[in-house]
Design goal:
mainly alpha, about 70 residues, about 60% helix, 3 helices
């Protein structure tokens, strides 16, 4: 069996993924492959639940920049 710490880390990662998911339920990619609802690329959406907390935090920072460039 995996150690308790590994399971706890996985649960914490999943909670982070759920709590930080910027999905707005629109899910339409524009011509630049950015979602018009959450500003993520298709690849970022695909990887959201398999990547690390740090990766998601970095994507969230990028999303903020993308959003600021549009509005």
């Amino acid at each position: 069996f995996p150690s308790h710490d590994i399971i706890t880390d996985k649960v914490n990662d999943m909670e982070h993924a759920n709590n930080t998911n910027p999905c707005q339920g629109i899910c339409v990619q524009d011509d630049n492959d950015f979602c018009i609802g959450c500003f993520r690329t298709g690849e970022e959406k695909d990887k959201w639940y398999s990547e690390s907390n740090q990766w998601r935090d970095n994507v969230l920072l990028e999303i903020k920049k993308r959003e600021e460039n549009i509005f």
